[in-house]
Amino acid sequence: MTKVDIYWNLIKKCWSVRSREGDTYGKVVGHLDSCVIVKAKFVVNPKGRERVLRERRKNVHAFVRGDLLMSRMPGTIDSYDGWAEANYNPYETNKFLGKDKIPLESAQLVLLSTDGKAYYFLGEEVYSSEYDDEPLYDEPFQSPNNYMDDGEALASAGMGTDEDYGYYGETL
Question: What pTM value is reported for the model?
Fold first, then answer.
């Protein structure tokens, strides 16, 4: 799988894909309408956020980092159960926030939808260093998918497997 940073491009109204590998490291290598990320981390660059607060003008400083599993999200978010929206507003907080305003640091599966919203799968334990590495959310599912491979995680999220939708591969 390809290691990437992905952020919503306000001008193009799509997801910009920045490489974290090889000769293209740090460069935007493509744009996607939607996608699925595994082993995701929610990243906010503090200096970039400070600049937003100082200049009152948006810049790219927050993104989802992980492995690009699928270059399109199968169906729409309404097709799935057990997902919650991840939000970030630099004027309100320095972290992505999940369900019930819980700070998010990582998630096994993240859907980046065509409307520019990010959703994470609730069937896993979500961790934040602010809570002593204790699970923040483990309901309604009792079995975390941290130990599943990507196909098992997709199946448990009601998304089928990468064979059903096409594995992303190594290049855009």
Answer: 0.73
